[in-house]
Every structure is written in C-alpha cells, then in structure tokens.
Amino acid sequence: MLISQSTTTRKGATFTRNVAPGVHRLAHAYVNCYLVEEGDEVTIVDAALPATWPLLEQALRAIDVRPAQVRAIVLTHAHFDHLGFARRARREWEIPVWGHPYEAYIARHPYRYAHENPRALYPLRHPRGAPILAAMARAGAFAVRGVEDLAFYTDGETIDVPGHPRVVFCPGHTFGHSALLLPDRDAILVGDALVTLDPYTGATGPQIVSGAATADSIQALASLEALAQTGAQIVLPGHGEPWKDGIRSAVGLAMRAGAS
Length: 260
What we know:
This protein is of the alpha/beta class. The chain contains eight helices and 14 strands. It has a domain at 6-184: Ribonuclease Z/Hydroxyacylglutathione hydrolase-like (Metallo-beta-lactamase, Chain A, 4-Layer Sandwich), CATH 3.60.15. An eight-stranded mixed β-sheet has the order 1-2-3-4-5-6-7-8. Strands 9-10-11-14 form a four-stranded mixed β-sheet. A hairpin with a 4-residue loop joins strand 10 and strand 11 (187-191). It is globular. 51% of the residues are buried.
C-alpha cells in the first residue's frame, strides 16, 4: 500500500505522519509515541515523557483530531519514559490507560522496576548515551507520576480501541512487556522489546535495550521469536527510527547483537 508520509520538526520534536498507514510517530527526547487512527478516532500507544504533552496536542491538531476523539492510551510497558503523560491524559481527557497486569506495579511506581546492571556507570562507559539520557531528563524523566487504575489486556487479545491492536506478549524488558500488532497495517509497535536506538549506550540498529533498563536479557532475547512470528513488515520501536525491512530481519540483527 502506498502512503503519503511527511515529517515536521518543532521544538526538538519530530512528527512523522504515516510511518505505517494511519499511524503517526511523535519523537521527542529520543522517545517515541504513536497515534493510531481509525475513522475519526485515535489511540495513543505509549505516553512518552511529561514535556511531550504540548507537542502531543500540536500533533493531534496537525491531523485534525480533538482531544475528545482520543479514546485510549495503550502501554507496551510502564517504564517512566512510556508513562510520562498518561496520568494527565487520564485525568484531563478521562480516557482509559491499558497495560498488561504484570505492569500494574510499575505503573503505580514508575521508578521501581527490575534491571540487571547498575546504571550509574553507563554514561562513562558509553558516552554516546550521555546526551540521550540528558535530553530525557530535561523532558521530565524524573518527574513522572504513576497511574493507579490500568485497564488490563491479555496475550493474544484484540483490544477494543481504535486500530484494534492485537497483543503479542514479549516479556524480558519488563515482565509484562507486550507488543501491539496492527495486522491490517502490516505493522507492529514493539515498544522496548526491540529498539533501533539504545538510550543507555547510544548504539543504533535493531537490538534489545541494555541491562541498565532490562529486567531479564535472556528472556528478552527469547521473546523476539514471538515478534518474528507475526511477520509484520513495518517495525515501530519505542526508541529510534522505524524499521521498514520486516520484523524477521530486525529480530535476526537483534539476536546477533545480543545483550549489553
């Protein structure tokens, strides 16, 4: 399917329409969130950082959508950089925030999550990651408030929100991490199960996130097979550029890159 893609940049954010048919990417402070259109309604996938909120409002205006037309936020997982404006949207727009039941604790306590490696030395060992982490901090990475009342989805469920994403359970980065397959768009929103930019190391290309933020890298690598089985062509990660060469090639490269 041919789609018309356009990109605008403003105040450090990039908004790209139609990274997949009817799916738009808002990238800010090295974090992606996505707007999934169906008819005149929208689902937001992942809630980025607090300072992304006014940029989200601008992105909605750019596609002629009012806040009243946003029906839900669906989280791939509840780390602080994917939960950023969820509480505000829940309060001001009165929309549900969806996530896996295993994410409920992190959603309530965004800074209490399992990770394999100490994080303090990463900026010294991986200086390319330092400006990325600094940008995230400026965008409110240390000021994210929790969400108490997630609406729960389950593995394999087709969620009744605009876009009707199908849940693909892929734990490892967090224990409830799930990707969202859009079969009619040939696209999969993979969150941090597979990224093309690791914020902690600055490394680019398909990979799992380093142990600074991943709970279980062995499990994360094993979960890549569930993503590969979807066969989706367009891969939309939580960090980094979309990957247009298919999920199977992305998974192959991520497996070769291994853990960091």
